[in-house]
Amino acid sequence: MRTRRPAALVLDMDGTLLDTEPLAARAWVDAAAALGLAFDAGLPERLIGRNFRDCRALIAACHGEAYPVDALMGGWHVAYDAIVEREGLALKPGVLDLFDWLDDVGLPRAVATSTRRERALAKLGRVALAARLHALVGGDEIARGKPAPDIFLAAAERLGVAPADCVAIEDSDAGVRAALAAGMTAIMVPDLVPPGPDLVDRGALVHENLAQTLALLARLPSD
Fold first, then answer.
1. 102-126: b (≥16 Cβ within 10 Å) or e
2. Residue-wise pLDDT tens for the chain (223 aa)?
3. Given 14, 54, 171, 173, which residue is catalytic?
């Protein structure tokens, strides 16, 4: 574990800042039903933290190349946006306290999300977080999605901070693996899926909530 405060924080979005993973899972079911398609009930958990390309590949691998993956994914966006329009977007508990502390101590922060940049900015703007970021990297801006380290390396570069000096906060197994591969200190605050059995052995911290993460960061000396 770190003995000094990090130089920057890199945060996942869905499931970490926004309580959207249950909405995404429901949208897959709604989209499949609207198209009259069979859909593996275990797939939504496997899609958490993955970018558009990787989600497409996982669905095709599960249901076969003849499955209308593109139609399903287009239907997913429609179903998801409809749910958000009806129900709105909620922040995960502790997000505002964390951002207030980051502002108070002047710690730079970025979002590294598998969601496409344009959609991510719209979602974060809707909950008044976009203006409180110093950088954002979307899943459409990097070559390889999580669990590859690309998105976290890009976030550190945009912040002008070495990856080893960053703490990453994630809710997904794929995201934590990506952060560790980038050389960051990784904290997992699980949402729908518990951590993989090897993540703690690989150096990840697992917290019950963002309040626990904030308490840890606030205890670390700044120099």
1. beeeebbbbbbbbbeeebbbebbee
2. 678 999 999 999 999 999 998 999 999 999 999 999 999 988 888 888 888 888 889 999 999 989 999 999 899 999 999 999 999 999 999 999 999 999 999 999 999 999 999 999 999 999 999 999 999 999 999 999 999 999 999 999 999 999 999 999 999 999 999 999 999 999 999 998 888 888 888 989 999 999 999 999 999 998 7
3. 14
Question: Which residue in the list 12, 150, 173, 191 is annotated as catalytic?
Answer: 12
40 as an active site residue: the answer is no
CATH topology of domain 8-19+90-219: Rossmann fold (3.40.50)
Cα separation, 47 vs 45, whole angstroms: 5
Token pair 């591969």 in the structure block, residue = 181
Parse the chain into domains and list their residue ranges. Answer: 8-19+90-219, 21-87
Examine the residue annotation and report whether 171 is marked as an active-site residue of this protein: no
